[in-house]
Design a protein that fits this description.
globular; 265 residues; 10 strands
Amino acid sequence: MALHLGVQTYGWYAYQQEHESTFSYRLVLAECAKTGFRGVDMTGAYLPQMQDAAVVREVCDGLGVRIVCTGVGVDDLEKARVAIEFLRAQAGTALMAGGGWVPEGEDPEQVMDKLIQDANAMAELSRELDFPIGFHNHLGTVTETPEGLARFLDSTEIGWCADLGHMASGGAKPLEFLERYGKRVVHCHLKDSMLDEQGQHVRFCELGKGTAGIDLDACLKVLVAQGFDGWACVEQDQTTLTPFADQKYNHDYLEGLGYGWALED
């Protein structure tokens, strides 16, 4: 089994939203390539720019990168079909599905029930199309807490896009969850998190700079031991300097941990 380490592009999208600017997908891919990462988990927000899969593949080939994943809402089966077709054209390996936010005034129990129903429908699509789909756990959703995440995973058949930072900031211990549910992981988001003295989430940060106690090396070793054969992509949701500078740091940090062999496609 092989572990591959890549980069997730949400940091670029968040940065452009913060600064009221616009980045083309070509610019984002070019900056990803310059960081040294070869596998790119392309934030779903850029998909509307990427209508011609053949052109996108040509751009990627020219830069020496490959789009390995993108994301859709867990309740949108039709968009998932389109995204999987796009990913197949890129030699992608997994689709990420997100959801579970609780609108103001709604009952979290009903949201959880609907999320489980949607996730199981997405799992059926994954089997039908023979393509891995992983649900992404997230702060601010019914999978934020350890109890909520365990309940979701125990009640569904969908694969898991394990996000280490969101787990740690929500009170879960990523290593323990990977030991318990690691065989469900089809894609992974590597993330570090800063907590305050009360253990509350402050922000996401570069790998190794967090205070949430995430043992990244141990988590990666558990994934490998569980037979994980896919991509773990660094997703830094909030920028310290620029998306490029932060992800270049993250690339070099992983290389310093001894994972240079996993940074190649």
